[in-house]
Specification:
Number of strands: 0
Largest sheet: none
Order of helices and strands: HHHHHHHHHHH
Structural class: mainly alpha
Strand content: under 5%
Distance between the termini: 25 Å
Number of helices: 11
Radius of gyration: 28 Å
Length: 346
């Protein structure tokens, strides 16, 4: 084993990077460390990863492995969490707006039911609606003199127009969900990466997940439901500010209590994704008016429920951030030297 490595193959002391110190790749004290890569390639002006900068994300990903074996200092998630808070607030507003839109759609269906119609037209073109009216026993023969359609026939076209408008609004809000979901996926995974990476600087050693694996697991469908809980529970425990004495550092954090907020966050997230509005529409959708009316209340409830995991996510990450900030104030500046190991998801 080289003289400058310990029994685990780690450097015995932080090795300054090339050019460190005066004009080096890192400058400033703990908590204000600067990144080696160009800000435009990795983080934006706000100090966070831009979730829509594809080239920047690719360069950021390539640089992660290079950083894994280099000494580093505590890096606050303050700015990143501020952006996450805004996106989560927009998500909650969108959930309530979608619930209102689904209620408006239901009100349009009530009008169909009041008109004595039993099912929705499968073809909403002019010819399709004329065929639908005929099947429903509604005459659409225009007056030979005036050319005006009967009121019942006109009503079918009017009802279809209003329902199309309501459904278009719901679809537009769903597109907004996709936009926010992608942004949150990138931002929360970046928060997990940095929070996990901070644990060694807070003198909490021996975590199961590396910073990179903590980020990557969140992008693997279905696994992220329970891995997300494990990752953030580990971060929660390792950020315990009550374990700061010399005899309470190292791996003593593993004896800390987990977080109910973190568990509720990932449990409600799994329910919202697996049994959300789109799943209900796909699995139980119907052209029958009565069934759609009954289904509408389920859609409204699940729309509101979408706000629940966002609330728990905010509370959990807020507490993690505050715990890390508090522990850093107690522990003070500490350069971390991560263990050298090959690529793994653990």
């Amino acid at each position: 084993m080289p003289a400058n490595r310990d029994s685990q193959g780690r450097p015995l002391r932080p090795t300054p990077r090339r050019g460190a110190g005066k004009g080096g790749r890192r400058s400033g004290g703990i908590g204000g460390s600067q990144r080696a890569a160009k800000p435009s390639a990795r983080r934006g002006a706000a100090g966070i990863i831009n979730p829509f900068n594809v080239a920047g994300r690719q360069q950021h990903g390539r640089s992660l492995r290079d950083q894994e074996e280099e000494p580093y200092a505590y890096d606050s998630n303050r700015r990143q969490f501020a952006v996450i808070k805004v996106i989560l607030a927009l998500w909650i507003i969108l959930a309530l707006a979608t619930a209102i839109a689904d209620y408006q759609e239901r009100q349009e269906l009530v009008k169909w039911d009041s008109s004595g119609l039993q099912k929705m037209p499968s073809d909403r073109t002019v010819d399709g609606l004329l065929q639908y009216a005929q099947e429903e026993g509604i005459s659409c023969s225009s007056d030979p003199v005036t050319g005006v359609l009967p009121d019942q026939c006109e009503n079918v076209f009017e009802l279809t127009k209003h329902l199309d408008d309501a459904e278009t609004l719901v679809f537009g809000l769903f597109a907004g969900y996709l936009f926010l979901f992608i942004a949150l996926a990138v931002l929360i995974s970046s928060f997990a990466y940095q929070s996990n990476r901070n644990l060694l600087t807070l003198k909490s050693e021996g975590q199961r997940f590396s910073a990179v694996s903590a980020m990557l697991w969140l992008f693997i469908p279905f696994f992220n439901f329970f891995k997300g809980n494990q990752i953030f529970q580990e971060i929660w425990k390792g950020s315990d500010p009550t374990l700061t004495h010399e005899n309470e550092t190292g791996e003593s954090w593993k004896k800390s209590s987990g977080s109910g907020l973190v568990f509720l966050w990932w449990a409600t997230f799994a329910v919202a994704i697996l049994f959300g509005p789109r799943t209900i529409r796909w699995a139980w959708g119907s052209d029958l008016i009565d069934e759609r009316l009954n289904l509408a209340w389920g859609l409204i409830i699940t729309d509101v429920f979408l706000a629940v995991p966002a609330i728990f996510a905010y509370l959990a990450m807020k507490n993690i951030h505050e715990r890390q900030e508090e522990k850093f104030e107690i522990v003070g500046p500490h350069m971390a030297v991560p263990p050298i190991k090959g690529f793994t998801l653990e």
